[in-house]
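SAMPLE LOG
Freezer: B-3
Tube label: C17
Construct: single chain, 200 aa
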Amino acid sequence: MQFGTIFKEDVKQLRSVLATHVATINLILLTQVVASISAAEDDRDILISYLESKIFVPAALRDVNGRVDISLERQQEIKTQLRGQSSILDVLGGKADETRQQLGGQEASIREIQTIVNHTLEKTKSTLTTATEVLYRVTSGLIHLSQITKQLRMMIQLCTTLIIEMRAAMSTLMELFPNLQITLQQVNRNLPTRLYLPTV
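STRUCTURE (predicted):
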């Protein structure tokens, strides 16, 4: 409301001032655009002249023709090499067919070898199982033998201790026998020669 009623004239003056400045800016931009277009046209002319000089120079054409000839010679050499390689490939194909035939003949022998190998594997498995059983039995028997030997050692030790004790007892008895003989002799001496009823 303020700009519509009070500041209406001020706005008109501001627009007139800004219009002059906008017009000058537009003119400067147009001149800049024209200058860039003219510079681009000059660059285009220079490029066209350069390309025409490059295209229509006979030395460059000769270089291009020489390169084309060299490339044609290389292509011919490559063709000859490819022909030689094709012949070599044909020879290799024949050898491959021969090897295939040989392999087809060897398949039967390979199968026979496989059957023999399988049969030997089965036999070895059976022998291994029997060997393991035998070893198990042998180990169990050895365990029993070790137990028996331990018991025999215990018996021998007991016998040796008994013999030592018997020897000690016999030695003590042998030591006691003379004492008994002496005591018996003393008893015999002390006994009367005749027996009386009271002593009986």
